[in-house]
Amino acid sequence: MVENINEKEAAGILSSAYAMVYVPFYEREACEVIEAMKAEVPLIVSDIEIFKEYCAGAALYVEPEKINDIAEKMMLLFKDEDKRKELIENGRIQIKKFSHKENTTLLFNEIGRRILYVGNDQVPEIWEAPRPLFDFQIAKKLYNNKAEIKLNV
To answer: Is the pTM of this model over 0.70?
Structure first.
């Protein structure tokens, strides 16, 4: 993890990446994939709905628990420069859909059963029950897209 860098330095680091592999097991915000598309970095992402919506044809999709699938997609990008260029071009097209000055997002996430505390021989594991979550965000870009105000609830 890179710490204590400004936004311009972070964009420079991201744009020098050969690809971005982002494979969470459950739905998350898509800020990272949008930034990668802005930086013209091809994507390998989890095969979940939010990434399909944001990335469309700008990413290769994998199931996060299938390590061989992830490795195969990484090798595909490494060996097939035409595929890599296609993903970058699709990202250029896709990112235009997200360059609005104002946007509102409402997401419903169902966080599944997950382990809360790992047990041992004397203490059993404790599991957290599934629960629904709503994420609401309002964003407005200011100063020719140089600043942005976000409200998350």
So the answer is: no
